[in-house]
Design goal:
By secondary structure, the protein is of the alpha/beta class. It contains five helices and ten strands, in the order E-E-E-H-H-E-E-E-E-E-E-H-E-H-H. It is about 20% helix and about 20% strand. Helix 3 packs across helix 5.
Length: about 180
């Protein structure tokens, strides 16, 4: 896997999200943020995540969707439970994944981070293939960007977020990386 000059991962399915913009001028990407998401909550495999990230989530399709259909959010990547890798935003652009956030005294983590969503939930173990895909993706990102840190959403927004959650096996993931 490698990131091309357009900021796209070769081999990933690309579904462009409108929920992105330019990073502030001169801002280097140096943070990777790992999330989890399932739509509806606790259910996997449906179109909800993609629909949310491309602003096509039908608020009538599920009671929970009424609460979130108007959100304008995205991530750079999604790793499905079956290992499918989808990219929504080129790495050079700012995806809207972190929200109100701070890391090591720097606010607005979206400005300088890459966001990766794992299809999952805080209380559900992740699939083996997800760890493998995430590690390969991370290796590609580390080859393209000088990532100083890899964190969970809960690390940059601890008062608001819990993901990737207690079922995410950080030692296992880090053990799979070429540049641990």
């Amino acid at each position: 896997m490698q990131i091309d000059s357009a900021g796209l991962l070769q081999g990933a399915r690309y579904i462009p999200s409108p929920n992105c913009d330019e990073r502030p001028a001169g801002t280097a990407v140096d943070l990777l943020v790992i999330h989890n998401i399932s739509l509806p909550p606790g259910e996997f495999g449906g179109p909800g995540i993609v629909d949310l990230f491309i602003n096509k989530l039908d608020g009538a399709a599920h009671p929970y969707y009424r609460e979130i259909a108007q959100l304008r959010v995205s991530a750079h990547f999604l790793v499905r439970r079956d290992g499918e890798l989808i990219q929504f935003v080129p790495c050079g652009k700012r995806a809207w994944h972190a929200g109100e956030s701070s890391w090591r005294g720097r606010n607005r983590c979206n400005d300088y981070s890459i966001g990766v969503e794992l299809e999952g939930a805080d209380d559900t173990p992740f699939a083996d293939i997800q760890y493998e895909r995430l590690a390969h993706l991370t290796d590609a990102l580390q080859a393209a960007y000088a990532l100083a840190d890899i964190v969970g959403h809960s690390d940059i927004a601890p008062a608001r977020k819990t993901d990737p959650g207690p079922c995410f096996d950080w030692p296992r993931y880090r053990g799979l990386l070429r540049q641990a």
